[in-house]
Specification:
Length: about 475
């Protein structure tokens, strides 16, 4: 800073376009990646310049968008040296009245100030080391919008209708993915990271970050512990995941562990809420009934008709029903090569894939800073048939599988093939009374989950088996 220039210390609340030598102290609360372009006005062909956009706050009520223009080297240096959470001094910014119909406003965070700040080669940004630094840091936990976020359940329920809309979300971190590099349509490459947020209404929504600033910050987010309030997330539809997803946009502002009653309630819920592995996160939470209360007898054909009706009417996202099926188990591969169990990280509950270790980039087990035994549970695929048809890929899993097979997963893993075969032939090709719950998540393929399986007496079968 040039000491020969008299600067006027001013707050955002008292900005005026006539102030030319302003010094404003505050904290950076949002930041976009810089953009580089060729300077067409330069006498030196090929000269490049760049622009950096960020959002700046100095009180609970006042925050403003800042645009910093300059030579590429200078702007990229500023981008490297200043980050969200830094308390800074803005020196000699140009103060202009915002044009609400300006196209640029559509791609910037919503702010409270009627002005915007423009900085250039005659401006400066400095780190602030004053005694009041902690007061500015505290602003980082104050949401930039009043409570009014959308429950994650409601976003999923919108399906394709919510594509290309924006929503505010309050969510707890369930999973932080690994940094990935993808090829763009223009031949270039870009990095991204995906996280999963959940709340009391739904086990999760995928949120993608392309912004380098937040990709870096994601490494500190902890499953169950970190609560995020994100404004103006871009809602999209993923054909790959067959579900609603979200993208952090240039309009978004992210508040970590925000202050507020709703955030406190979510943080308390997140401590004990079940975390779903990322590959099944799009399943809806199912309210499981008492198994013995499942008495509505259905045939395979009736179950399939119910599923087909949901597909044809477009109501699969709300599909959920129970059934008591008297069917023959025609496939139960306990002693062969079929899938029998899943393995999850004992710390963060992330599904462990073929490489045999946790892949959650923030998990201490994956970082080799903690040693926690993985959790193993049954996940068996079963085929059931009756006189009307066949149900493939029915799931016998978890504690239900242990009750049906009459052994724990640990006991099963120690068994010989002969012992496993004996358990298999107790049910294989036998007519069983099988209680099922059928549900779908976000219009995906329905899940048929076995809740109990037993061998009924012949009289019960004759009296209750349906004709079709």
């Amino acid at each position: 800073m040039n000491d020969n220039i008299v600067l006027q210390r001013v707050t955002l609340m008292h900005l005026e376009p006539t102030i030319f030598n302003a010094l404003i102290v505050g904290v950076i609360i949002a930041k976009q990646d810089p953009r580089q372009f060729v300077d067409s006005k330069s006498s030196d062909p090929g000269t490049s310049r760049a622009v950096l956009n960020f959002t700046f706050r100095d009180s609970p009520q006042d925050f403003i968008n800042v645009t910093y223009w300059g030579k590429s080297d200078a702007i990229f240096a500023i981008d490297e040296n200043f980050h969200v959470g830094d308390v800074v001094e803005l020196v000699r910014p140009q103060i202009t009245i915002r044009k609400y119909n300006d196209k640029g406003e559509q791609f910037r965070p919503k702010v409270t100030s009627p002005y915007s700040l423009t900085m250039n080669d005659f401006s400066n940004i400095l780190r602030h080391d004053g005694v009041n630094e902690v007061n500015y840091k505290n602003l980082l936990r104050l949401p930039t919008k009043p409570p009014g976020f959308v429950p994650i359940r409601d976003i999923h329920n919108g399906g394709l209708a919510v594509k290309d809309t924006y929503a505010d979300i309050l969510g707890a971190v369930a999973h932080v993915g690994n940094l990935r590099t993808v090829k763009l349509k223009n031949g270039g490459e870009a990095s991204l990271i995906e996280i999963i947020l959940f709340d009391q209404t739904n086990p999760g929504i995928r949120v993608t970050f392309w912004n380098r600033e937040y990709i870096g910050r994601a490494s500190s987010w902890q499953p169950r512990s970190t609560i995020l309030f994100i404004t103006d997330l871009n809602i999209d539809w993923s054909g790959y995941h067959k579900s609603v997803v979200a993208k952090f946009s240039n309009k978004s502002i992210l508040t970590e562990n925000p202050v507020g009653r709703e955030a406190e309630k979510l943080a308390e819920y997140a401590k004990t809420a079940p975390l779903h592995a990322p590959n099944i996160i799009d399943q809806l939470t199912v309210n499981l009934p008492d198994v013995q209360m499942i008495q509505n007898v259905m045939s395979v054909q009736q179950i399939q008709n119910r599923i087909n009706l949901g597909q044809e009417s477009g109501t699969m996202q709300n599909l959920q029903f129970t059934a008591l099926l008297y069917g023959v188990i025609t496939q139960l591969d306990l002693d062969g090569f079929g899938r029998l169990f899943t393995k999850k990280c004992g710390h963060c509950k992330t599904l462990i894939k073929l490489i045999g270790k946790c892949e959650n980039a923030t998990c201490p087990v994956a970082l080799n800073t903690a040693l926690v035994e993985p959790e193993i549970s049954f996940d068996i695929r079963v085929t059931i048939s009756d006189h009307t048809g066949t149900l493939n890929d029915c799931r016998l899993s978890g504690k239900t599988a242990e009750m049906v097979l009459d052994c724990s997963i640990q006991e099963f893993l120690q068994m010989s093939d002969d012992d496993k075969a004996r358990i298999k032939w107790k049910y294989l090709l036998e007519r069983c009374a099988i209680r099922l719950i059928v549900f779908s998540a976000n219009n995906q393929k329905p899940i048929i989950s076995i809740q109990s399986c037993s061998i009924p007496d012949g009289e019960e079968v004759v009296q209750r088996i349906p004709v079709y």
